[in-house]
Sequence to fold (336 residues):
Amino acid sequence: MPEEIETADTVGSVSASRYAEIVAELRKLVETASRIQFTIGDYALEVEPMRERGGSAPNNQFFTVKDSLFRLSEDAGVSYEQIDKARWTASRWPKDRRVSGVSFTVHYILASITDDEERFDTILTPPKGKSRWTPDEANRRVGRQVVKPVTPQEKVSAIHTLATDEEVAATVTSDLLRRPTVVAQVRQEDKVRVVEELTRDDHVAAKVTTGLLRRPDVAFRAMSDDTARHQVNHAQVERGRRAREDFEDTSPVAPAVKNIDRSVEFLDLITACHAFVAAAGRVVPGMRDRQLGDDERVIMHENVARVRATLDWIETAVDTGKVDVDDELAKLLQGE
Fold:
């Protein structure tokens, strides 16, 4: 089927003059249809007048409002929804307030304006730059979704309406997130919230984090955060501990390795002591005739206390094999 092309002389497949004739005829039909709709509404109001909110039917009235209107729709051969819609619209527009040339649809949409005078004034004043009310303009006036969205907000609302189904929303979101130009326009704080939502699953979060930390700039910035760096260090220690426990529980050569570990730990401790003594022997002589300030002396005494506590801890571990530390020693070793 060939594509319809509009020019200054044609609309769709007809000439501009023929299009004008069609519009004129349709407006006559719309006018007639509007009168019919209001007539249906007036008759429905006669059968069932509008009641005050919370009001009830007289005690001797057998039918409820819905029952009465449903019977009327059945007997007249008109749908109940049409009867109900026409009745409500007619109640909002007294006969002397109905505007000729404005469709019943527009009357129905603007009927949601609660204030009577505002409603009556509005229908007499088309939007700026428009010669008449259209259904879309009426929907804009009352804040409803339009058929042909124009503004960015209207388009956003239309997308939200179409994406109320979770499966549709998920597919649309996946497609949009693949468009770099779209993602680039999302505010930074919104991007963070999106990533947080998408990584609630621990497996997904671990995979994403692993990929991100392979990027040097990202890793550098992440490790600049004290909490993040602490968590990474803790995770490394914890991973090593679990691996060691698993090895000790499952490997047949674990006992032999433990003996080697003890020898290695002994050598490491001797090396640490030697390094400390060598460093002190190199640095302390350089302080000859040098007077430290009060703050410097306080800091140095604190560190000497930590060294003494560490040496006592080493002696206890060597003599008894116990390496546990009490709270006071732990705080001292941590510099608290």
Notes: The radius of gyration is 41 Å. The chain has a mean pLDDT of 82.
